[in-house]
């Protein structure tokens, strides 16, 4: 079924056979993220290059990195991060206007509003905050799209280094491979700005919130979206996003099926 789905979509599928090894979850690098609240249960992990991974997606990421690829296992978070980094100053200014900073004279009021701006800009790294902002202020979406289309590597570097993003990156323990600014920039450089603008429009208009491939990999100046599967098939949301968004824009999409080594 999975092979026929890929054939219908016109995307390649690759099989990666890995050996399994039983481990205590507390020794796994990613156990807290991938298997919450399991105590000291024994887990049947996936072995790649002498490391044992609880989540096969982490093993798959290590596989692509061993081939020279750079990227993340994040199920679509990376494109959202790029949009938020690029549009950071816009979010900040719109938030400033939204809370009425220009009317404020009293120091206490100023500090209160400044804190609200800080909180919002810090939380813009969270997907729900970004979607909520776009839903409440749809008239600003064209501004986001235009900003992404005109973005430069220098802008991405400058905005990434601002303290809200560095704070989130430094404190966020939920993701097994937190974003690295250098890799983020390499991912951006793989695709021309107009394609990122098309992606921004689809994301900001809330058309595609589900179905993003597990991995995003930059290699040889090409960007690859890779969906990981073990036993299951592509979900309708995944087929929809691949067929209606990623392939028409021109992204490379494939499926990696991780199976136990016999």
Helical amount among residues, as a percent range?
A: 40-55%
Determine Rg (CA atoms, Å): 20 Å
Q: Unreliable stretches, pLDDT < 50, 5 or more residues?
A: 27-38, 101-115, 120-127, 166-178
Q: Multimeric state of these chains?
A: single chain
Mean pLDDT: 77
Computed structural class = alpha/beta
Distance between the termini: 21 Å
* Order of SSEs: HEHEEHEHHHHHHHHHEEHE
Number of helices: 13
Give the overall silhouette: globular
Q: How many E strands?
A: 7
How much of the sequence lies in strands comes to 15-25%
Strand order of the largest sheet: 3-2-1-7-6-5-4
Q: How many domains make up the 3D coordinates?
A: 2
The major β-sheet equals:
7 strands, mixed
Key descriptive features of the protein:
50% helix; seven-stranded mixed beta sheet; 13 helices; alpha/beta; 262 residues; 2 domains
How would you portray this structure in words?
- The chain is α/β, with parallel strands linked by helices and 262 residues long.
- The protein has two domains: 1-75 and 215-262, no CATH class; 76-210, no CATH class.
- Helices cover 50% and strands 18% of the residues.
- The chain is built from 13 helices and seven strands.
- The chain has helices spanning 2-9, 31-34, 56-66, 77-86, 88-98, 107-123, 127-136, 141-149, 153-160, 163-171, 181-189, 193-204, 236-249, and strands at 13-24, 42-48, 51-53, 70-73, 215-219, 222-229, 252-260.
- Strands 3-2-1-7-6-5-4 form a seven-stranded mixed sheet.
- Strand 5 and strand 6 form a beta hairpin.
- Helix 6 (107-123) packs across helix 10 (163-171) and helix 8 runs antiparallel to helix 12 (193-204).
- It is globular, with a radius of gyration of 20 Å.
């Amino acid at each position: 079924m999975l092979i026929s789905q890929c054939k219908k979509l016109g995307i390649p599928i690759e099989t990666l056979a890995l050996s399994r090894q039983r481990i205590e979850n507390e020794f796994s690098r990613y156990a807290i993220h991938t298997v919450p609240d399991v105590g000291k249960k024994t887990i049947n992990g996936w072995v790649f290059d002498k490391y044992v991974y609880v989540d096969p997606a982490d093993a798959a990421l290590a596989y692509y990195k061993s081939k020279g690829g750079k990227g993340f296992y994040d199920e679509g978070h990376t494109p959202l991060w790029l949009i938020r980094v690029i549009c950071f100053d816009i979010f900040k200014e719109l938030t400033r206007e939204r809370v009425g900073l220009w009317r404020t004279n009293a120091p206490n009021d100023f500090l209160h509003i400044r804190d609200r701006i800080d909180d919002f800009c810090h939380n813009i790294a969270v997907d729900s905050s970004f979607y909520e902002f776009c839903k409440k202020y749809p008239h600003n979406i064209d501004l986001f799209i235009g900003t992404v289309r005109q973005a430069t590597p220098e802008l991405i570097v400058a905005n990434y280094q601002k303290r809200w993003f560095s704070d989130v990156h430094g404190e966020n323990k939920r993701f097994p491979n937190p974003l690295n600014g250098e890799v983020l920039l390499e991912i951006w450089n793989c695709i021309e700005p107009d394609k990122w603008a098309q992606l921004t429009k689809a994301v900001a208009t809330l058309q595609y919130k589900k179905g993003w491939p597990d991995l995003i990999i930059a290699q040889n100046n090409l960007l690859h979206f890779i969906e990981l599967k073990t036993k299951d098939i592509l979900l309708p949301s995944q087929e929809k996003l691949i067929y209606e968004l990623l392939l028409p824009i021109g992204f490379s999409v494939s499926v990696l099926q991780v199976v136990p080594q016999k």
